[in-house]
């Protein structure tokens, strides 16, 4: 075994796998550029940190289960004039996550609510936060299955491990009484503990009719909006506009 291979093995034993895998290249670059020992040490550290960050982001992206890759950079602010790039950019210091606040995007279908939710979620993952994306329907089914197994509290604890829970498309489909109760249990468990990014086509004034029970709607609304940033999105469907102009 060569000295390089021995050194790579030592790095692996220290769990510095990125450095071990690219040690030969790093040394060759250092020699070619006549780097000082300190500069070489700095580059090795930077390389290891960059690779660990990349792996962490990849892992958290997989865990988030985002339905599509919709970066904020691709959002068309010219079409959606009810929210500005400055307003969205102000959220990207992620103070709302650190302060356990929520984001709520309200508007008709096709105006960019889900795009904004996914785009902000992507930025949060890059910044080191754990995110989980669920449509309201999938989330309700998830909670209902857990409740049937007698594991609702366990599932709520699992969901509470994420820094941000994205709930997409709340209000599009009716919910049973048990589903409403389960959703309340979830919202209550996350209240002032984790952040929610919520997209909905229902204004809060219509939630009582949607839930068919003001006794459920009111406490859910109270916990969602108590610490939240609310954005009302308007305009015609962006998807419909694209289809009619293509």
Physical arrangement of strands within the biggest beta sheet: 2-3-4-1-5
Q: Would you tell me the structural class of the helices and strands?
A: alpha/beta
Q: Classify the fold: give the CATH topology of the largest domain.
A: Rossmann fold
CATH class type of the largest domain: Alpha Beta
User: What is the residue-mean pLDDT, rounded to a whole number?
Assistant: 88
Number of helices: 12
Major sheet characteristics: 5 strands, parallel
Q: What percentage of residues falls in helices of 4 or more residues?
A: 55-70%
- Number of E-type strands: 5
Q: If you compute it from the alpha carbons, what radius of gyration comes out, rounded to the nearest whole angstrom?
A: 23 Å
CATH architecture group name of the largest domain: 3-Layer(aba) Sandwich
Oligomer: single chain
Categorize the overall geometry.
Answer: elongated
Poorly predicted ranges: 239-246
Helix and strand succession? HHHHHEHEHHEHEHHEH
- The H-level CATH homologous superfamily of the largest domain, spelled out, is P-loop containing nucleotide triphosphate hydrolases
Strand content: 5-15%
> In total, how many domains does the architecture comprise?
2
Describe the structure.
- There is one protein chain.
- Residues 239-246 have low confidence and may be disordered.
- It is built from twelve helices and five strands.
- Strand 3, helix 9 (177-190) and strand 4 (195-200) form a beta-alpha-beta unit.
- It has helices at 3-13, 17-32, 37-64, 85-89, 95-98, 113-126, 136-148, 152-159, 177-190, 207-211, 214-225, 238-245; strands at residues 102-106, 131-135, 164-170, 195-200, 228-232.
- The protein is an alpha/beta fold and 246 residues long.
- The radius of gyration is 23 Å and the shape is elongated.
- The longest helix is centred in the N-terminal third of the chain and has 28 residues, at 37-64.
- The chain folds into two domains: 3-63, no CATH class; 72-245, 3-Layer(aba) Sandwich (Rossmann fold), CATH 3.40.50.
């Amino acid at each position: 075994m060569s000295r390089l291979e021995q050194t790579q093995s030592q790095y692996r034993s220290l769990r510095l796998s990125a450095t071990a895998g690219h040690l030969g290249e790093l040394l060759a670059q250092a020699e070619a550029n006549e780097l000082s020992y300190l500069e070489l040490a700095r580059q090795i550290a930077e390389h290891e940190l960059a690779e660990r960050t990349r792996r962490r982001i990849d892992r958290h992206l997989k865990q988030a289960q985002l339905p599509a890759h919709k970066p904020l950079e691709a959002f068309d602010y010219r079409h959606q004039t009810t929210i500005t790039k400055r307003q969205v950019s102000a959220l990207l210091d992620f103070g709302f996550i650190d302060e356990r606040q929520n984001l709520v995007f309200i508007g008709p279908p096709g105006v960019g609510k889900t795009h904004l939710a996914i785009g902000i979620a992507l930025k949060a993952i890059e910044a080191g936060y754990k995110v989980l994306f669920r449509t309201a329907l999938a989330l309700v089914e998830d909670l209902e299955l857990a409740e049937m197994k007698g594991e609702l509290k366990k599932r709520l604890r699992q969901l509470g491990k994420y820094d941000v829970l994205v709930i997409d498309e709340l209000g599009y489909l009716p919910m049973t009484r048990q589903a409403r109760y389960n959703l309340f249990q979830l919202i209550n468990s996350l209240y002032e503990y984790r952040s929610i990014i919520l997209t909905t086509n229902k204004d809060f004034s219509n939630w009582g009719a949607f839930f068919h029970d003001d006794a459920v709607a009111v406490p859910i609304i109270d916990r969602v909006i108590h610490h939240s940033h609310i954005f009302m999105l308007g305009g015609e469907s962006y998807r419909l506009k694209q289809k009619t102009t293509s």
